[in-house]
Amino acid sequence: MAYSADGTSWRNRFFSCGTSKDGESYIFEWNESEGGLPASPRIRFNKDGTLLAVSANDYGIKLLANTDGIRLLRTVENRSYDASRASEAIAKLAVHDM
Q: Residue 47: is it exposed, middle or buried by C-beta count within 10 angstroms (0-12/13-18/19+)?
């Protein structure tokens, strides 16, 4: 992994590389034209290597994904989550002493 600032450009670049299941090597360049990545970002891969989480400025997280990771994100995204129902369910929980 490398995160560098190009002296001829105001854009920062983030590089990630790896090997596919078939043994093919790849490298990705992520242009960070809108900013948001700190000088020394913290990174974590998921277990399958399909998602890369990168810490961003302002307590944010950026997710970088390969094709399989994008499919995974879309399946999670398609599951609807209603925060109001979740808070109602939590409010209805009763606490019992043992």
A: exposed
Question: Among 27, 37, 31, 38, which Cα is nearest to 6's?
Answer: 31
- Contact, 41 vs 55, CB < 8 A? yes
pLDDT in tens, 39-65: 677 878 888 878 888 887 777 887 778
pLDDT per residue as tens digits for the range 29-42: 666 555 666 667 78
SS3 22: coil
